Amino acid sequence: xxxxxxxxxxxxxxxxxxxxxxxxxxxxxxxxxxxxxxxxxxxxxxxxxxxxxxxxxxxxxxxxxxxxxxxxxxxxxxxxxxxxxxxxxxxxxxxxxxxxxxxxxxxxxxxxxxxxxxxxxxxxxxxxxxxxxxxxxxxxxxxxxxxxxxxxxxxxxxxxxxxxxxxxxxxxxxxxxxxxxxxxxxxxxxxxxxxxxxxxxxxxxxxxxxxxxxxxxxxxxxxxxxxxxxxxxxxxxxxxxxxxxxxxxxxxxxxxxxxxxxxxxxxxxxxxx
Length: 273
Prior knowledge:
The protein contains 14 helices and no strands. With 273 residues, it is mainly α. Helix 11 packs antiparallel against helix 14 and helix 13 runs antiparallel to helix 14. The chain is elongated and about 75 Å long.
């Protein structure tokens, strides 16, 4: 009985959607694609107008950012081996996707059979696409450089906090005439410098995984500028007013770098400045 379930569910597609789907020609699957890549191409054709990182449809991006990212689909929207329990499969079968107002016809029965077969077979990523060949940290090929690159989110928080703290302590030392605050400022700056070195090194390596993404190069050089100004401030820490100005400049740059990094991570509309 269970083997007939996919066919029974497909007959539950709304009649208008079924008619549109049957009149649509499914994407041609090249012989070298295989099941996974054929499924990816079909999903991109049917859903890619809205569910892609550059889509103007913010609601679609929030619910499913990139239909072409098969690894994320498998992790968040599918139950490998069980199509009917998979959110992606069920919302199409149930007629929720594509929405009624969409100009794109829903998948045909043949395309739904393709999707069903892919999920039932384990929903593996295509072997000839970037996300499938991307090295994972738990794999046997993980290198020290990769580990450093993926540690970038850890290191960035230290200069983001310590550099403004050093500037604040130095400013209060001048304003309140409290020499002991100079020691606190120097301490924060001394901690910020090695953290900035690791943040820049890991970020530079990590940016190599995002080649072509808008803003990556700008973010890289903002990080370098943060490191240079922080290093100069630490080197000239005995010249109190110069130290204060350099730490203020470094704080402004690290704030800009953090903002650009946040836009790269969460999208340009997350905090639209």
